[in-house]
Specification:
A hairpin with a 4-residue loop joins strand 11 and strand 12. Strands 1, 2, 5, 6, 7, 8, 9, 10, 11, 12 and 13 form an 11-stranded mixed beta sheet that branches. Strands 18, 19, 20, 21, 22 and 23 form a 6-stranded mixed beta sheet that branches. 16% of the residues lie in helices and 36% in strands. It contains 8 helices and 23 strands. Helix 4 packs across helix 6. With 408 residues, the chain is α+β, with helices and mostly antiparallel strands. The chain is globular, with a radius of gyration of 23 Å. The protein has 2 domains: 161 residues, no CATH class; 168 residues, no CATH class. The structure holds zinc ion (2 copies). The site of one zinc ion (ZN) has 8 residues, from loops. One zinc ion binds next to loops.
């Protein structure tokens, strides 16, 4: 589990506990569900113990997720879990360490009292450094990195200034001298942040029915008018989806993103191009020359190794499923990996699929994708012992791995 967040129900005011990666607040008291939305990042504060002082908050970048890195001849991956300082200020701890685990965070809202130091470092630079540390020492250079995050947020550490010293307001302990006093921090303070946290009513925009989803879902579904929705800029927008009907009562539907794209930097304008470029041991069908290239990825969190393995298997096989444009009534596994993260992983999937590495790896830094379409596809799986078995392709996923992914 990640860090815990405490948030009052927007409907009845009861305190509700969430995990940092949760999007759906489900109130156990009034049963109202709200979908949480913030532009860019969720922002949290750690509670302080200095009610008398004027609090200044320092930003830390929180990332938890998978880092994939393409070296000259191989694709590696790691799980990265960091809370790194996001401002240049001497004396502050470089990471929050275990602190957020010991306390309940709160969302930053326009009502949060105190001043906020600007997040002045680049998220991409912090991630790159964390990614570099986790790749270990090697003489091979890294041609590409992808960060497939479950959590990317800012956590604010409360501080205050007293007698020209900077204090940690969680521990009430001086952490460094500040000879110029509070004024030295003034230029770094974000004057008018007005960060909004939006609570979206989970009602279907098309028919008004209650949308279904779990606490970590990033796509909600309507069982009444058979639609799927994702949040964008504080609104629900429709998600295109298909479903492949399964056999048997125990069928569970796992969601996958299917992304159609062309590539520049290496030429991929069709599925045949992809097979040739990656040098798959398959005879190229004539109709593949005109067939769109589709990249497949799981639309749920899972260990990086399994994520890559599944993506590769579905992408290389490019199986034509018989699909229906409706949503199965039950046993839908939640979508916990947003479409944007799936797109981020496409280069890694291309590299991971390459049998002939020389054709692909040296071009990785230059490759660009032109996304033509994306569809959420629910594929039928059968539970069998410790496994979930994909019914058409006989690809299996270990059940424990799925459970682990939910907690990642
Ligand atoms: Zn409530
Ligand atoms: Zn509806």
């Amino acid at each position: 589990m990640g860090f815990t967040v405490e948030q009052d129900c927007p409907q009845c005011g009861a305190p509700v506990e969430l995990d940092e990666a949760d999007h759906l607040l489900s109130c156990p008291y009034c049963n109202v569900k709200s979908f949480l939305f913030a532009p860019n990042y969720f922002r949290f504060v750690l509670p302080h113990k200095a009610p008398q002082e004027e609090i200044i908050y320092a930003p830390y970048l929180r990332f938890k997720g998978n880092v994939f890195f393409c070296k000259e001849r191989s694709v590696g991956h790691r799980i990265v879990d960091i809370t790194n300082l996001g401002v240049t200020l001497k004396g502050l701890p470089g990471t929050l360490g275990l602190r957020p685990q010991a306390m309940k965070m709160k969302f930053v809202t326009p009502d949060t009292e105190g001043s906020f130091l600007r997040f002045s470092l680049k998220a991409s630079k912090i991630l790159e450094r964390a990614g570099r540390l986790s790749t270990g020492s090697s003489s091979e250079s890294i041609l590409h990195r992808a960060y497939i995050g479950e959590t990317l947020s800012l956590i604010y550490l409360p501080l205050y200034v007293k007698n020209n010293r900077l204090f940690d307001a969680v521990l009430n302990r001086a952490i460094t001298g500040l000879p110029g006093g509070r004024e030295t921090l003034e230029p770094s303070i974000n004057k008018n942040p007005r960060w909004q946290l939006t609570f979206m009513a989970t009602l279907c925009p098309q028919c008004g029915w209650n949308l279904d989803g779990e606490r970590d879902s990033v796509v909600l579904t309507c069982s009444n008018c058979k639609t799927a929705w994702e949040a964008s800029k504080g609104k629900f927008i429709p998600v295109k989806y298909q479903f492949v009907p399964g056999q048997g009562e125990n069928t569970v539907y796992l969601p996958f993103w299917k992304i159609s794209a062309n590539a520049q930097g290496v030429e991929i304008n069709s599925f045949a191009d992809f097979i040739r470029l990656t040098n798959q041991p398959r005879v190229i069908g004539k109709d593949w020359e005109t067939e769109d290239m589709n990249f497949w990825t799981p639309a749920f969190k899972i260990r990086p190794k399994v994520f890559l393995h599944l993506s590769r298997q579905f992408t290389v096989s490019q199986k034509h499923f018989d699909t229906k444009e409706t949503i199965p009534k039950k046993n839908l596994y939640p979508v916990t990996l947003p479409r944007g993260e799936a797109i981020q992983s496409m280069k890694v999937i291309l590299a991971g699929s390459a049998v002939n590495k020389k054709n692909v790896f040296p071009h990785l830094p230059q490759i660009k994708f032109n996304i033509k379409d994306s569809v959420l596809v629910y594929l039928p799986f059968t539970e069998r012992g410790y496994e979930m078995l994909q019914q058409q392709m006989q690809i299996s996923i270990n059940k424990n791995t799925l459970e682990f992914g939910r907690q990642l």
